[in-house]
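Hi, here's the filled form for the chain we discussed.

Project: internal
Contact: R.S.
Residues: 234
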Amino acid sequence: MENPLLLFPQLNISASKDKSYYKVMKSMIKEEPHKASKPGAKQKRNRLSLLLQKPEFHESDHLGKPGNLTKAASVSPEEAVKWGESFDKLLSEKAGLDAFTKFLKTEFSEENIEFWIACEDYKKSKTAHELLPKAKTIFETFIQKDAPKEVNLDFHTKEATSQNIHQPLITTFDAAQNTVYRLMEQDSYPRFLRSDPYLNLVKGRSPSRPTLRRRSRSFTVNDFQGVRPDFTIW
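And the returned structure, exactly as it came back:
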């Protein structure tokens, strides 16, 4: 069977670090119409669809490659302990961010950290000309109704963000990003600190293969009303 990454190079995000995050993300959302008309394109998509249905494909997708787990094992217990000091501390260190992202994948909630990372990158835009295409991609990927990686936002925040998307500012996604940050800090972060992979790192053990599990329930902003986390990372 042909390698699906050769058939669909846009899926191989890590293969070319020079490619823009937004070009890759957008290519995953919308397929160019003319591609479907090419001979054999439909057959190739069918073969990829069958591959995606195999359990081993999804397992490797959520757990990451063995090399990534080996890399996580190089984290010192002292460094891992610091991640427990605050959520800001965890996200500010690349190894901590990577470990937390892997944990969210086991809970099928990685869209939250991916949205947060996309917003951080968005705020690094150098010119106003860069904002519109980036804002459109973030909105279509994470915020609009039935987006492929839709994050959980309250109605007011989603509406306010939607109204500003056509003339985006550097602060367009701040409210939505803060909301998702708070949900992760109050919900996912405590569970991460109690997880076996994290506790093994603290104890200096090699991380075991995590077990995939569904989220126990869907959290909303109302679950954390009255909580005022410190968003010093911004």
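Let me know if anything looks off before we file it.
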